Amino acid sequence: MYNSDNLNELNKRLKTWDETATRFRGKAWRPKMMTVSSREINELYTPLDVAQDGNDSQRFWEEIGLPGEFPYTRGIHHTMYRTKPWTIRQFAGMGTPAETNQRFKYILEQGGTGLSTAFDLPTLMGYDSDSPNSLGEVGKCGVAVDTLADMETIFDGIDLAEVSVSMTINSPASMIMAMYLVVAEKKGIPFDKLRGTLQNDILKEYIAQKEYIYPPVPSVRLIIDMIEYCTDHVPQWNTVSVSGYHIREAGSTAAQELAYTLADGFAYIEAAIDRGIDVDQFAPRISFFFNSHSDFFEEIAKFRAARRIFAKRMRDKYGAKNPKSWLLRFHTQTAGCSLTAQQPENNIVRTAIQALAGVLGGTQSLHTNSMDETLALPSEKAALIALRTQQVIMHETGVTNTVDPLGGSYFIEALTNEMEREAEEIFAEIDERGGVIPAIEEGYFQREIARAAYRHQNELESGERIIVGVNDFVIEDEKIEIPVLKIDASTEREQVASLHEIKQRRNAGEVEVMLDKLRQAAATDGNTFAAMVDCARAYCTLQEMCDALRQVWGEWSESPHVMQVS
Amino acid sequence: MTTERKIRVLLAKPGLDGHDRGIKVIAAAFRDAGFEVIYTGLRQTPAMIVDAAIQEDVDAIGVSILSGAHMTLFPAILDELKAKDASDILLFGGGIIPDDDKDELEKRGVARVFTPGAPTEEAIGFLRDAVARKKTDETLM
To answer: Does the distance separating the beta carbons of A251 and B29 come in below 8 Å?
Structure first.
């Protein structure tokens, strides 16, 4: 797009420009400016930063192109938000299934267009509410699910053919999905009408969030079993949402988030191809989930680079022929780790800016955090403001009027290229270690993330980096005056009581038979997911299903010595 | 003159919560401050934590809880310390803990509860002072 004469001329003029600029570089001028991920940013970007080789026009088509066309740097749809605004998808779930059901209905009444379910820690770790491991945790970080009955309550009165439902769960994702399918079956909704997303991304659990049960190899098999089943029976369901969110929350840089997440995604794709599933059959149902942090432009560049890397690899490395397999669709959540307990109202502003970065990066759906998340689960008011933040961006700012408004910005394009380069370097490092699973086993990701987190903390404490209200602009003896939601102990009692009632009511013989079949499927190469759907129908508990697999596959634990930080 | 023993601290994550960013940052900061740090990892029961603390002869136990289970887990560790006659080991911690709960826990015997945004230096300073105070108390006894 730039001919060499122009570029030569620009090069010459830049030298003079720089001399003049020096006169304005007073005491306040800093030679080195860094992003939140410690990436150095130039003072100025020009066509020289994006047109680095001679064959510039060809490069334009390979790297940027048009929206809705390969390599999708500018977006996955031709018209983006002009025809299809992003889905406002607020993560919610707390206390008992009945309370979550109420919150869901409230979100839908307020104009939310998708539901997103948070589960409590016992559920996420495959324990029932009456397990000793669950003590004190039932209903705390999300809703407790023990059996199909709980899922029936959560989705009571909600038309599952109309809403898309996202469920944030990983190790026991299959068990929860099996229950969800049976809920739909009982409501008479055919599986091919169901739309939604399951997080179901176990690899990032070993890397960052640490909610794993089984060792990595059988865990990945569990996912591939589900992909196999859903490809045939639940074709509109997004079976895996490959998540960088938690990797970033654990302290990674933007580039690490990008590279580790894509590497995880490619690992699932390779495993499914190895199973013999046609890449074009399942790849369109794999989606991604990224964090949107405060460093505005770096985040936008990250999203754009993600689309381009994915498209290239899917087409060129994995041989996908269907353009739908080349599309990286993603959900965004604003960065919980950027929020502060101090002056919590400021979090509304942080979240709005991060949300805007997600939108300018071309996200398909978005969750905006509530201002009180560093204090507790969101109160109703805080959750409403978070929702309204998205509506203001969508309806008032005009950013939806044109596709990829920042495309062509010298800075954004150069940064997008840089993110891609850095991700490729990290892919090479993972390959050298034998792939994602061996790298997890030796603690590579965990170590790199801990290092980045510590570096960030040191930058805060040295005052190199300012967080408003925390290490500067502090209000002394601040009193926090926002209401905080508390889950009381009655939740645990109620949930345990209802679980015991179900256990009395169900057919115990049938439960045993179904669990046996699940164990058999796990011990052989049967499809574990199909067996779980039968278990769900029989009201087997989540933990009974998880235990059946624990008996066959054992449990994973991370040895702390691989976690050495220094 | 005796050689000053380094402060020994055991760090652990009790409960089911796996969010270990905070505890690892603290581990690195303590190490850089010259403390001897034993990090026992995730999903440690109160009994495991206290046993390890006694075995490692530590001055203090630091735990991180972000899941909301702090009102169950902190008291359980305190009880365990008492039961094993090890209440001389300081218990402190951090996490997403509302102010009311923080006050309540400190009243019940948790030496200090840190909440989001607290700089690592504050935790380092706290531990140095608290351990020094504890040693003076012990000499006086």
So the answer is: no
Any chain A CB within 8 A of the CB of B28? yes
Tokens for A32, please give them. 């080195």
Threshold 0.90, pTM exceeds: yes
As a whole number, the mean pLDDT across chain A is 93
Which residues does residue A366 pair with via DSSP β-bridges, in sequence order?
Answer: A88, A332
Give B 31-50 residues with CB within 8 A of chain A.
31-32, 39-43
User: Average model confidence (pLDDT) for chain B?
Assistant: 92
User: By mean pLDDT, which of A163-172, A484-493, A525-534, B45-54 is the weakest?
Assistant: A484-493
Amino acid B108: pLDDT: 96
Q: How many CB pairs under 8 A join A and B?
A: 108
CA distances from A69 to A50, A65, A269 (A): 20, 7, 22
Q: Could you count the other beta carbons within 10 Å of the beta carbon of residue A501? A: 11
Does A561 fall in a domain?
Answer: no
Q: What is the mean pLDDT of residues A378-400?
A: 94
Query: Side by side, which strands form the sheet with B36-39?
Result: B36-39, B8-12, B60-65, B90-95, B112-114
> 3-class secondary structure for B41-90?
CCCECHHHHHHHHHHCCCCEEEEEECCCCHHHHHHHHHHHHHHCCCCCCE
Residue A69 near residue A61, CB atoms below 8 Å:
no
Tokens of residue A512, six digits: 């045993």
The residue to which tokens 């398909």 are assigned: A364
CATH number at residue B108: 3.40.50.280
Residue A109 CB neighbours (<10 A): 8
Query: What pLDDT, in 10s, does the model give residues A431-453?
Result: 999 999 999 999 999 999 999 99
pLDDT tens track for B55-97: 999 999 999 998 888 999 999 999 999 999 999 999 999 998 8
Task: Give the count of alpha carbons within 13 A of A487, CB side only.
Answer: 32
The answer on pLDDT for A357 being more than 90 is: yes
Q: Enumerate the residues of chain B whose CB falls inside 8 A of the CB of residue A471.
A: 119
> How many structural domains comprise chain A?
1
Residue B1 falls inside a structural domain: no
Question: What domain range is A166 assigned to?
Answer: 80-397+406-461
Q: What is the CATH number of the domain that holds A373?
A: 3.20.20.240
CA distance A258 to A292: 11
CB-based contact, B120 to chain A, within 8 Å? yes
Whether residue A256 lies inside any domain: the answer is yes
Distance CA A244, CA A198 (A): 15
Q: Which residues of B touch A566 (CB under 8 A)?
A: 28, 31-32
Percentage of residues in chain A having pLDDT higher than 70: 97
Q: Name the pLDDT band for B141 (thresholds 50, 70, 90).
A: low
With respect to residue A508, please indicate whether it lies within any of the assigned structural domains.
no
pLDDT of residue A107: 82
The answer to whether residue B113 is domain-embedded is yes
Q: Could you tell me if residue A25 is inside a domain?
A: no
